[in-house]
Amino acid sequence: MSYTYTFEDIHNRPVAVIGAGTLGRRIAMMFASRGGTVRIYARRAEQRAEATQYVAETLPRLVQDRGFGEVGVVMGTGSLEEALDDAWLAVESVPEKLEIKIPLWGEIDRAAPPDTIFATNSSSYPSRLMAENVRDKTRLCNTHFYMPPQFNALDLMSDGQTDRGLLDTLLAVLPEFGVHPFEARKECTGFIFNRVWAAIKRECLAVVAEGVARPEDVDGMFKINWRVPAGPFQMMDLVGLDVALDIENHYCEEFRYLPKKSRDLLQSYVDAGKLGVKTGEGFYTYT
After folding, report:
1. What is the pLDDT of residues 229-238, one digit of tens each?
2. What's the rounded Cα separation, in Å, for the pair 49 and 54?
3. Which pTM was predicted?
4. Is the peptide bond between 149 and the residue preceding it cis, with omega within 30 degrees of 0?
């Protein structure tokens, strides 16, 4: 099977986004920014409604501010088969747990057309580790999005068997949607930017855990010195502190030398139910 496409080949075909959380809905918005159709699959109707509402409210401004594209159609569905019907691309964006991802990819594999590109948005797991139920492993890869539309770089990484034409397709086509891919040349936990970012987050957490600074002090210095709109603690609140903890635990399985105090701080917030923006309180309080 060839997975070599141009934008003209796929612009009339939908994209399926599997997962309607913080990143899933943002990924859907980017793929809907060229006038096409995106289907968001999630089991819970409430989450589907929240995701489609977010896109409806945010997409027109994105297209206007970016200066190119067209407002497309995003719909939610509780049927995986409906989401994948004729899709050229399926992006999985579910919680960072292999016990969820492995069986889900088996379901996607059974339901998808034979020429659909498979992409996981996993932020720390190589796609190779979730591929046991995928019959054709040449169609699977990592496409790790950060926080579009604010941060539009993307890590692209092979599962070890990914078709070269598929990788070249994504390198060429994703910029059409305002997403800019960079290929990891060998398998790496954390890919390119996220591995560096993990080290930054870990030291920021340690500084706060030791009582050296408050989260708002660290974020304030980042915003002044690097002229960024949000600091590390604000970013962790946005992604979810439970997600941040899952990622950090995975790094510690891979790199045993990493210190424990950063995980302990995150664990204390998760145990208290303070997961960030999605629960109204994390390192900051949200209304």
Report:
1. 999 999 999 9
2. 9
3. 0.83
4. yes
